[in-house]
């Protein structure tokens, strides 16, 4: 149960601060950051929300820039393998070909049961600016975006269409990545507008217990 004290944050800020605070117990008993950093290629879908939040927490959660989405996802997978699946890295991309470049890496992580947190930008939940540059969607299905490609190649998938949904979705994603039986890639699709929506975030969410 979370306490009653809250702080006003955007969804992206809450996500980044939770990731930065997560710790896991090492074999020697010390606590280490669960997430080693966030591989990022910024563009339409993730720069204004997640990009700003990562900049604010850059001292606690490193942001690593890359030039190819599939390559940075493979680097995150290698990090998880080198750490015996006990630590992860996150990966974020824009909503278009950038997101689809992550699908092959997600499939690789899936079949090898290696944890990686995929955070692709998604179409505006409000659908007010529609479409935006490089956005990929199905014109015959208004609720479908390119990120639905991740459903069959991840162990857990969710689309955050309200900021408060993060409070249950992110811990579920972490639970999957740390479960010996379920371990594998997870995907939280982040609509562009929802990333920047503010909500009353419980302070307990920003101080998670060690894993």
Keyword list:
alpha/beta; 31% helix; six-stranded parallel sheet; Rossmann fold; 211 residues
Briefly note the CATH topology name. Answer: Rossmann fold
**Strand residue content:** 15-25%
Describe the global form: globular
Summed up, the domain count is 1
Distance between the termini: 16 Å
CATH superfamily: Thiamin diphosphate (ThDP)-binding fold, Pyr/PP domains
CATH class: Alpha Beta
Helix % is: 25-40%
Number of helices: 7
- What structural class is derived from the secondary structure elements? alpha/beta
Any low-confidence stretches, pLDDT <50, length ≥5? none
Radius of gyration: 16 Å
Could you characterize what this model shows?
With 211 residues, the protein is of the alpha/beta class. It has one domain: Thiamin diphosphate (ThDP)-binding fold, Pyr/PP domains (Rossmann fold, 3-Layer(aba) Sandwich). Helix content is 31%, strand content 23%. The chain contains seven helices and ten strands. The strands form three sheets. It has a six-stranded parallel beta sheet with strand order 5-4-6-7-9-8, with helices on both faces. A two-stranded antiparallel ribbon has the order 1-10. The chain has a two-stranded antiparallel ribbon with strand order 2-3. Helix 3 packs parallel to helix 5. The longest helix is centred in the middle third of the chain and has 14 residues. It is globular and about 55 Å long. The two termini are 16 Å apart.
């Amino acid at each position: 149960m979370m306490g009653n004290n809250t702080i006003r944050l955007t969804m992206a800020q809450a996500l980044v601060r939770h990731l930065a605070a997560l710790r896991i117990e090492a074999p020697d008993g010390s606590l280490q950051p669960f997430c080693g950093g966030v591989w990022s290629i910024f563009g339409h879908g993730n720069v204004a929300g997640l990009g700003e939040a990562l900049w604010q927490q850059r001292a606690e959660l490193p942001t690593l820039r890359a030039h190819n989405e599939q390559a940075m996802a493979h680097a995150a997978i290698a990090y998880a393998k080198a750490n015996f699946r006990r630590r992860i890295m996150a990966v974020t991309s824009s909503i278009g070909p950038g997101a689809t470049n992550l699908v092959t890496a997600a499939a690789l992580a899936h079949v090898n049961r290696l944890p990686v947190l995929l955070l692709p930008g998604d179409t505006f939940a409000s659908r007010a600016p529609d479409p935006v540059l490089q956005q990929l969607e199905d014109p015959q299905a208004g609720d479908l975006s390119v990120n639905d490609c991740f459903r069959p190649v991840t162990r857990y998938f969710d689309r955050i269409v309200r900021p408060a949904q993060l409070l249950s979705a992110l811990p579920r994603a972490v639970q999957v990545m740390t479960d010996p039986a379920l371990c594998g890639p997870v995907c939280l699709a982040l609509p562009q507008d929802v990333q920047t929506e503010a909500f009353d975030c419980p302070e307990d969410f920003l101080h998670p217990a060690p894993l």
